[in-house]
Amino acid sequence: MSTQTDSQLWRQLASTGTLDESYARAWLSLLLSRVEESLCAVLVTVGRTDNAQPKANAQLQPFATVPQDRIMHPKTLPTARLAVEQGTGIVDRKTGSEGRADGALIAMPISVMETVKCVVVVELRDCSTERLSQIMRELQWAAPWMQKSYFIEEIGVEQLRHQVSIHSLEIIADVSEQRTFNEASNAFVTEMARRYDCERVALGVRRRRRTFVRAISHSAQFSDQMVLVDQLAGMMDEAVDQKGLVSFPDQQFSDQKIVYKHEQFIKKFGAAHVLTIPLTYQDRFFGAVLLERAAGNPFTEDEVAEIESLSALHAYILHDKIELGRSIVAKNLSALTSVLEFLVGSQYMWRKVIGLAIVGLLALSFFWQSTDYVRAPATLRTVETRQISAPFTSYISEVHVVPGDLVRKGDPLFALDDRDLLLEELTLINTAKQLESEYREAQATFDSVGIRIKEAQIDQNTARLELVRRQIELARISAPFDGRILSGDLTQSVGAAVDRGDGLMALAMNDFFQVILEVQANRIDEIETGLFGDLVLQSMPEQTFSFEIDRITPVAEYDSGRTFFNVSASFADVDDKWRSGMEGIGKVDMGEQRMIILLSRDIVNWVRMQIWRWVPA
Question: What global pTM score does this model have?
Fold first, then answer.
């Protein structure tokens, strides 16, 4: 290649900058002029892939070939794909018909911002390994020219996006500063017509399943164009009913939508290109915008995407303008309509089923009545409990019962040591006999003073003897009534000393029980004597026992973070399995009440307390 040709190629690289086929061929030609062993060079572009798509599935497309009339080697694309996958230069030796080395393919990926944009593949004659390394360096040195073109392209795209954003913000600002919906809609259609070079732009608002045209660009009044307005509204209905963009005759943007109204409009009014985009607010279609263009000026894919995005942004602004202009009655009716659509419309089936179920339960709870109960922890207690104490100071000699035993009236419980008392009884008996003899002697001698002394001594001895005999009887302790031993295990205390008055056992009457309910303070005002209820014990959950409240303790108690009042209740019948101290849950019957009140009472009371606490008087 001549020096003059090289100069032209360098000037083309310096002047163009952006990536196109002529730029790519100029770059490949300069590359081949520096590699004498080269036969052909191909620039392969790498298609864009998302993050989920592996590099092995990247789309490879030959972009430019030098020489142009050269057929690229069959292994060009496989070698390029291998370079993309490995992210580094690749050398693939070619083999001739006899299996000998016959040149090579060398591929170098070119990356921009860690993304492979293209691959240059050079077909070479047979050369040494050292020469292949030199050629690889030539490709690396040449790569910045290609990276430069991609950077220029990226900068151009960003500048275009920036320009589009500025135009969009200008339109949004112009529409937002309008006070009423009519002013905002007129400003919107006028700016859209100017920005996108449209013959006409119309805006429609949905009401009662129909679209009404509210603004047309370059037309302050359009009441005398009712035929045109009806046709525009029909096209907007066609797009809204299908819930998507409709384009005619450029149907590649509208996913094979029905375009009957659009086709009729073009035939009747001579429009060349029509684009209709529905407007949505919170997943609800409330209008549409329609754009017309003259012949020879179709909508491009980028313009359609930009118009869709801009329309979506303005949908919120326009909807807010509509709402601001409506009366309170209209807003309430619209809210009621939205609720009804949510409940009985064709979408969101599960939401509606759940919503209807909730409404049904609320209605049922308003009319359905159920028994109101005051629930409280409960404990069984015996009505009468007798403490058995030591009648005198002595030692425990016998024990006949242990806690939990049932006893009958008169059954022995335990005995105290009475040996000293028996000896004292014998002594007193002998003393009584001696005093009796002395008394007779005093009578025989007519000693009146001695008679009176002996009578006093006999009386004293007799009283002492009766006391000792009474203590001997008390040494054998028996049950004063039928009941159950609650406490006092003396089996390990035989021989132990006890003092008079020491509590040794507790005996509970077995036929009379009461239940103590711990009623919370917020329900105690509802409890009255004479109310009935039911008790279920933890140890007997399969049985229910009825009780009647007979006493309310007016003093509150506090335990484990709870404030409660003790309420006593009695039973008509007693179960043989009951034991004092059994715990359970008691429910006091408060009569019939609506279910809605039963479910909401605690919440309502809590809200009342919070209002009283925080709202100033």
Answer: 0.39
